[in-house]
Specification:
By secondary structure, this protein is mostly helical. The protein is built from four helices and no strands. It starts with a helix and ends in a 36-residue tail after the last helix.
Amino acid sequence: MTDAFTESLEAKVAEVAAIDDLLARGLAALEARQKLAASDQDLYAIQRAAVQGLRPGRTWAEVGGLFGRSYAWAEAIAKGRSSKRSKADHDAESTPHAGAAEGHGPDTDTPDQQ
């Protein structure tokens, strides 16, 4: 079933794809994706609030079932552990190097070039 949203989105994709100039096409695609991402975050917040609102008196499995999903999905959405979190929610720390947990320093030596 095609709805107005899907039709609008498909029309926008076709409009961007039809732009002849590569730079203009790329910039138009970037702008459209940024708008889509911002709207996705807004929709995620609405969905999260709905899951949280449905939780009292229900198990996570029951809430997940209302959406046709698992208990883990419902719990992750409600607690903000979904892959749809905004970038601001993520830690800025990099992954520690191998051996860091054992107290080893990073390997900074390079093999001799011959």
